[in-house]
Design a protein that fits this description.
GO molecular function, one term: metal ion binding
Order of helices and strands: HHHHH
Distance between the termini: 36 Å
Radius of gyration: 16 Å
Structural class: mainly alpha
Family: Belongs to the hemerythrin family.
Strand content: under 5%
Largest sheet: none
Domain Hemerythrin-like: 12-129
Protein name: Hemerythrin-like domain-containing protein
Organism: Herbinix hemicellulosilytica
Number of helices: 5
Number of domains: 1
CATH superfamily: Hemerythrin-like
Length: 133
C-alpha cells in the first residue's frame, strides 16, 4: 500500500490539476520508499534523480496551474504564484555535495517538505481555485 495517496479531500474537481497532483503524491511515495529501503547503502544517485524529477515536474505542473488561474482571472493568482516560486526555490537549494554527505537527513527533510506542501498547499490553496466560478 502506498504511504502517500490522493484521498478524496485532495481532489479539486479540476481534472488535469488532480491528475498532476497524483503524480506529486507518487514522487513523495518514491522518496518515502527510498528512505525506508535498507538494501541500497548509497542512495546518492537515487536522491539526485528524485530531486531532478521534482524540479522538472513541479515547473510543468505549476505552469499548467498558473495558465489555468490566468484563464479564469483567479483573484489570488499572485499570492498563489509566490508559493509556487517558493517551492521551486527550495528544491533548487539542494546541492549535490550536501546530498552526498547527508543522505538520510536530506531524504527526511525532503519528505517533511513534500508532506506539508501536499497537505497545506493542495488543501488550503489549490482547492480555492476550484471554488472561483
Amino acid at each position: 500500500m502506498a504511504m502517500y495517496e490522493m484521498k478524496p479531500e485532495y481532489y479539486t474537481g479540476i481534472e488535469f490539476i488532480d491528475n498532476e497532483h497524483k503524480k506529486l503524491f507518487e514522487i513523495a511515495n518514491n522518496v518515502y520508499e527510498l528512505l525506508m529501503n535498507e538494501f541500497i547503502p548509497d542512495k546518492y544517485d537515487y536522491i539526485l534523480d528524485v530531486v531532478n524529477e521534482l524540479k522538472d515536474y513541479a515547473k510543468t505542473h505549476f505552469q499548467h496551474e498558473e495558465d489555468y488561474m490566468s484563464s479564469i482571472k483567479y483573484r489570488k493568482f499572485l499570492s498563489h504564484k509566490v508559493e509556487h516560486d517558493g517551492f521551486i526555490e527550495k528544491i533548487n537549494e539542494y546541492d549535490p555535495d550536501v546530498i552526498d554527505e547527508n543522505q538520510k537527513e536530506i531524504l527526511l527533510e525532503l519528505l517533511d517538505f513534500l508532506t506539508s506542501w501536499l497537505v497545506d498547499h493542495i488543501l488550503m490553496q489549490d482547492k480555492l481555485i476550484a471554488e472561483q466560478k
